[in-house]
Amino acid sequence: MTEFLLSCVVLLVNLYGVYLAWIWFGWRKVKEPDVHRNTKFEVMVTVVVAARNEAGNLPRCINSLLKQEYPSALLECIIVDDHSDDETLRVANEKIAGHDGFKVMMLDNDGQGKKAALQMGISHASGQLIVTTDADCTHPARWIQMMVTTYLSEKAKMVLGPVALTGKGFFRQWQALEMRALMGLTGGAVGWGKPTMANGANLAFEKEAFFEVGGYEGNTQKASGDDVFLLHKMMTNYPDSIAFAKHTEAVVSTPALGNPGLFMDQRVRWASKMLGGYKSLHIQFAGALVYFLHLFMLICVILSITASDYMFWFRRVFVLKFLIDMMFLYLVDVQQNQAMEFRRGFPLKVLLGELLNLLYIPVSGLLVLKGSYRWKGRKVR
Question: What is the per-residue pLDDT for 309?
């Protein structure tokens, strides 16, 4: 038993290192969009925002959309309220008053959830290119420029954009590091022509292609997954037409969660996609690799109470994984803040994050088996 478990841990951490090296080489293959200040844009864009109970966040989101450096005649923004219990609808109407191209819609009683809200917005969109984002996000002034430039230069049907989490304190900064790793995995996989993940907070796609692949049909029973399930449909129909907007001015920011309970609900929501629709062997392999590596490492810690051999090997595997993760996070920082981060204790943050991951990843994997969670005031499956 001892030899088998330790052999598994050593094998998994080596596979983990090889996998992240492969992702990093893919990351290097992704080209940055080249946008000049005098570039003339001609693509009509519709930004669709699905909002539920976001009265506190929506003003910042709308302000950042109003400041986009993109021709106003070619930019439309549709905010769809998903039966909010707060003042979201009122706030949205007040913020857009007097701004041409901005409109607010309310999801009818026959529809509920993010996919239904997005579907409604897309159906009423005038744009050739649809860009989705979340109501709690803020955007750089040249965000639309970067997404459109990537779309045109890569001749893409879909553009995956980077997302960053913000906030002070270790808990929020740990989430920010986790999101950066996910963005590295997203961009690296695109570099190899094998995209597997997407984030609806920063996602662009052709309206025509959306309807050609059937939109969200076939996945409406899942509360989550408006992004990855659509990505997989696009991959099936347009396998060489997925791009990644690798530029600091393409990064959409959203606050990290301060409430551990909400955080676990969010992560269970994300992980639930694995059980209900991820058809990619690549992402299934990556998810299993990460989960079982952390699970076996945690088992080693528990068993070390009675057998010192487990702690001996755990320490070595832990240090190796820490170095692998720190190097990967350093190399895939699309915001290019590495030097500043090292002055702010980047290695220590990664180290503490590694310790937290030992418990968080195995536990979140088990919680997914419940099949339900709460989100935005609703109990969903």
Answer: 82
Q: How many helices (H) and strands (E) does the chain have?
A: 13, 11
**Do 55 and 87 meet the contact criterion of CB atoms below 8 Å apart?**
yes
Separation between Cα atoms, residue 225 and residue 214, nearest integer Å = 15
Q: Is the pLDDT of residue 159 over 60?
A: yes
CA angle at 185 for the pair 261 and 195, rounded to the nearest 5°: 115
Angle between helices 88-96 and 58-66 (to 10 degrees): 20
Band of pLDDT at residue 305, cut at 50, 70 and 90? confident
Tokens 């790793």 sit at which residue?
181
Describe the chain by its helix, strand, coil percentages, rounded to 5: 55, 15, 35
pLDDT (0 to 100) of residue 319: 96
Residues 6+ away with beta carbon under 8 Å from 243: 150, 151, 154, 156, 158, 159, 160, 190
Q: For the chain, give the mean pLDDT.
A: 88
Of the listed ranges 97-106, 150-159, 361-370, the least confidently predicted one is 361-370
Q: What string of DSSP letters covers 305-342?
A: TT-HHHHHHHHHHHHHHHHHHHHHHHHT-TT--HHHHH
Q: What is the pTM of this model?
A: 0.90
E strand segments, the chain: 45-51, 75-81, 102-106, 129-134, 158-160, 163-166, 203-206, 242-244, 252-255, 373-375, 378-380
